[in-house]
């Protein structure tokens, strides 16, 4: 595994690691690690360092409503799906946009303050965009696991083993 992959793996696991810690873990100098990280940032490979917050425990996001929207679109000549995806991701309510295979073309994750707000956004903004043929909205009721993070409390067996 090359140094950049090692650095990326470590940062994926814990983005708070210091350059010195990463250097020790990869057997590189801090200067080499800092240069590699700077290059990864300049190349657009590392785009952001962020905290993963449990939405059920964060008071600000706890009451937010999230929805998964399936969208069928007519691709534009010369730009395909990119043009409509570009228009969609610019809305501040939109958290993610994916090009999909299967029964629909785009999957969009949106967030709002209420069911009514999300429904209004879908009916007045998304479904009225030129090229959108249909939408199907699925409200997200609970997140169990996302991006390898388990959000639900797991029951732990606290009994002690008995030996004979």
What does this structure look like?
Helix 2 packs across helix 3. This protein is 34% helix and 21% strand. With 164 residues, it is of the alpha+beta class. It has six helices and six strands, in the order H-H-H-H-E-H-E-E-H-E-E-E.
Radius of gyration: 21 Å
Beta content comes to 15-25%
The oligomeric status of these chains comes to single chain
Spell out the helices and strands N to C: HHHHEHEEHEEE
Strand order of the largest sheet: 2-3-1-4
Compact overview of the structure:
With 164 residues, the chain is α+β, with helices and mostly antiparallel strands. 34% of the residues lie in helices and 21% in strands. It starts with a helix and ends in a 14-residue tail after the last strand.
Kindly list the characteristics that best describe this protein.
single chain; 164 residues; alpha+beta; four-stranded antiparallel beta sheet; two-stranded antiparallel ribbon; 6 helices; 34% helix; extended
Please write out the topology:
Blueprint: H1 3-13, H2 19-26, H3 30-42, H4 59-62, E1 65-73, H5 82-89, E2 94-99, E3 106-112, H6 115-126, E4 132-140, E5 145-146, E6 149-150
Antiparallel strand pairs: 1-3, 1-4, 2-3, 5-6
Helix pairs in contact: 2-3
